[in-house]
């Protein structure tokens, strides 16, 4: 094909980015993306399909997704004083948040290692991103965070709670300290809430500049793409202006209504994943040469023997299991890999592939 003029016209901030890439998992046991490994319970499938079949997809969906929002409030105990904004995954809400405050010369602050989208979206919007290194064992370095806030006066601070990819919950007091110190908006991203079960959601009532973010992805509906933000009506009204009309499609709304009416089933699955997480953690602790960190999420971060992160990842993949290789990032994540908690069978396959790969390297 002939050359385009993209190089001339695409903004330099975008040209400088690398796309968020997802590895090909075909034929592999998929433990790379923090999905719930179980499909819908069989007894729910028929009712769900009936709900979908009743949807007139020739018509636009409810633009406010009101019936979904009502159920989200009820199921997750959103304080009455808070407003909600729904997104096509919480990723879309991150983009809306950045879009709302982006201006050249403004800064976004978040701990690092952290969720890659915070930096990507901030830089794409022409903002400066300041990553604050985590302390020992990936604890939030409260002094460093407060110092970064004082120095950069960020428009936005992101705190993933639990953090991805480290899996830990930062100390609530450190999060509170950031809330007090920040001059702008603080977003506590609770994507992994189903596995941590602690939340800042009730605190949006006392902190007008706190927004809590949730998603249905990790609890079992990653394919659905539904996330929500809860916070002060003034913030939410501004964000709503740049939400695309009809961003939550009819099939997502119908599925979410049905799923939220049967949320107990997803809670049972989340409890099983938490149990499996503890078993997998214990199994990793036993493996000589590996370091593993406790997790409040549905994944575990572990470190391969020095200099062997990439080789260990590849050895595991060659044996049929896909996890996430973070070793390329270096720094605090040197030789680190992340495994999502799967079914007992998948976790056994992972441990077998891990052992085979470790043996192959020694
Ligand atoms: N926040 C964090 C911390 C995440 O790890 C993820 C998913 N990797 C998301 C948000 C986005 O989730 P989704 O768009 O599926 O709601």
From TrEMBL:
Its cofactor is pyridoxal 5'-phosphate. Keywords: Amino-acid biosynthesis, Aminotransferase, Histidine biosynthesis, Pyridoxal phosphate, Transferase. GO terms for molecular function: histidinol-phosphate transaminase activity; pyridoxal phosphate binding. Residues 41-354 form the Aminotransferase class I/classII large domain. One of its GO terms (biological process) is L-histidine biosynthetic process. It catalyses: L-histidinol phosphate + 2-oxoglutarate = 3-(imidazol-4-yl)-2-oxopropyl phosphate + L-glutamate. Homodimer. This is Histidinol-phosphate aminotransferase. It comes from Thiohalospira halophila DSM 15071.
């Amino acid at each position: 094909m002939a050359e385009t003029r993209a190089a001339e016209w695409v903004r330099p901030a975008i040209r400088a980015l690398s796309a968020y890439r997802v590895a090909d998992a075909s034929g592999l046991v998929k433990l790379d993306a923090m999905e719930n490994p179980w499909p819908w319970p069989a007894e729910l499938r028929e009712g769900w399909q009936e709900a979908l079949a009743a949807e007139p997809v020739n018509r636009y969906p409810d633009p406010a997704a009101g019936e979904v929002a009502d159920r989200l409030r009820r199921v997750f105990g959103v304080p009455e004083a808070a407003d909600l904004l729904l997104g096509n995954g919480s990723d879309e809400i991150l983009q809306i948040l950045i879009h709302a405050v982006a201006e050249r010369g403004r800064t976004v602050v978040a701990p690092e290692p952290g969720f890659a989208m915070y930096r990507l979206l901030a830089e794409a919007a022409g903002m400066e991103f300041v990553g604050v290194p985590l302390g020992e064992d990936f604890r939030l370095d409260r002094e460093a965070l407060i110092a970064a806030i004082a120095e950069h006066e960020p428009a936005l601070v992101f705190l993933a709670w639990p953090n991805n990819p480290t899996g830990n919950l930062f100390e609530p007091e450190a999060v509170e300290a950031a809330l007090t110190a920040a001059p702008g908006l603080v977003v506590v991203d609770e994507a992994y809430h189903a596995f941590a079960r602690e939340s800042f959601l009730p605190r949006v009532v006392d902190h007008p500049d706190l927004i809590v973010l949730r998603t249905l992805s990790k609890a079992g509906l990653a394919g659905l793409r539904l996330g929500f933000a809860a916070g002060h009506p003034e913030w939410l009204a501004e964000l709503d202006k740049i939400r695309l009309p009809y961003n939550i499609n009819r099939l997502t709304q119908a599925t979410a209504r049905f799923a939220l009416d049967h949320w107990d089933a997803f809670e049972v699955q989340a409890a099983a994943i938490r149990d499996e997480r503890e078993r997998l953690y214990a199994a990793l602790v036993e493996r000589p040469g590996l370091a593993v960190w406790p997790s409040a999420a549905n994944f575990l971060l572990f470190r391969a023997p020095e200099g062997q992160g990439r080789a260990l990842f590849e050895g595991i993949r060659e044996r049929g299991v896909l996890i996430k290789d973070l070793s390329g990032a270096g720094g605090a994540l040197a030789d680190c890999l992340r495994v999502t908690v799967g079914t007992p069978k998948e976790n056994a396959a992972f441990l077998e592939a891990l052992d085979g790969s470790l043996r192959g390297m020694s």
